[in-house]
Design a protein that fits this description.
3-stranded antiparallel β-sheet; 349 residues; alpha+beta; HIT family, subunit A
């Protein structure tokens, strides 16, 4: 099939069966890092600041207590990504590269087509967290952080028909952010990435092997019992440094109630307090907001059992050749030590 030079497409690696999205239009993104203008002055040119709404595509949704649609007066705002990694209509299963189940696809008979590609169908949005020019989630007050997380849930709900939705936050140039104004990105995909499919299968296997056990709930119980990697606990969630943390000071926020869908109707507000605690712990430990990647793992379509969680990875180390070549990360800072230092930082904050 013929795909335009600027049209996002999915290609299947012939050796691993893993997907790559090629999105050439994203090379044209504006990059405001490395420019001296930050802080209040940057609001004059930042497309995400209140008053500059005309510099973004037409909004898809907004938490707007006042003001007219498309203008100022909003708390959180979602717009299409001007340089999308996905595009076009989400379609049916047409070819292995677009199948909803990469694990089953990998078990199929060998394909004749060695250079398989399909359009990267889906939608790619930006969710702007604040009308103010703030660079990090940690700089939001409690009300603003709650509004931002509610915005995440609202936009995930808007894509319930997608096979899989991935919401991410990149903070800082080393984390992949091209604009410093704090924002999230949402990818509504017509396929389930292999990492998510593997996690789904781990939940299912544990459920079957333990006669109905819930994987993350069992992990939480054991982590609390051992008390080595727990950073904080409240009525809604547990914050841990995961057992097999891939990088220093990696954090995982796990709701204490087993729920697969982060955007379930009764989840509004759930976990916001613990997210604030996680961000405060990192800021206290490092003296400033570290550059970081954050992502929400929510159940892909039809996945049961599942248990949503939020992972946060500060950008403190670099993935080098070994990690890239093998897919095995080397973490020089044990999670037990990281958890202890973060608990201490919270006590001092």
């Amino acid at each position: 099939m013929t795909v335009g030079e600027s049209t996002p497409e999915v290609r299947l690696d012939q050796l691993t069966g893993l997907r790559t999205i090629l999105a050439p239009a994203r090379a044209d993104r504006p990059m405001d890092f490395g420019i001296a203008e930050h802080g209040p002055g940057a609001a004059h040119t930042c497309p995400f600041c209140e008053g500059n709404e005309q510099d973004t595509p037409a909004e898809l949704w907004a938490d707007r207590p006042e003001g007219a649609e498309g203008g100022p007066g909003w708390l959180v705002r979602a717009v299409p990504n001007l340089y999308p990694a996905l595009g076009g209509e989400v379609g049916d299963d047409t070819g292995a590269a677009s199948t909803g189940d990469p694990l089953k696809a990998a078990a199929r008979a060998a394909r004749v087509e060695l250079f398989e590609r399909v359009p990267a169908n889906g939608e790619h949005e930006v969710i702007v967290h604040s009308p103010e020019h703030l660079r990090a989630l940690a700089q939001l007050d409690e009300r603003s952080l709650s509004a931002a997380v509610n915005g995440w849930r609202e936009r995930i709900r808007a894509h319930r028909n997608s096979r899989c939705v991935q919401l991410i936050v990149n903070e800082g140039p080393d984390a992949g952010a091209s604009l410093e104004h704090t924002h999230a990105q949402l990818y509504a995909m017509d396929f389930v990435p292999a990492a998510i499919a593997r996690e789904r299968e781990r939940f299912r296997s544990h459920h079957d092997a333990t006669n109905g056990g819930e994987l993350l709930a069992d992990i939480v119980s054991e982590e609390i019992r051992r008390d080595e990697r727990v950073v904080a606990v409240d009525d809604e969630a547990v914050l841990i440094c995961p057992w097999a943390s891939r990088s220093p000071f990696e954090l995982r926020l796990i709701p204490r109630r087993a729920e697969g869908d982060f955007a379930a109707d009764d989840m509004d507000g759930f976990g916001v307090g613990m997210l604030a605690t996680a961000l405060r712990a990192l800021k206290s430990r490092f003296g400033t907001e570290p550059q970081l990647n954050l992502w929400i793992r929510t159940a892909p379509k039809g996945a049961e059992p599942f248990h949503w969680h939020i992972d946060i990875a500060p950008r403190l180390s670099i993935r080098a050749s070994y990690e890239i070549a093998t897919g095995v990360d080397i973490n020089i800072f044990p999670p037990e030590r990281a958890a202890g230092e973060l608990r201490e930082a919270l006590g001092d904050s």
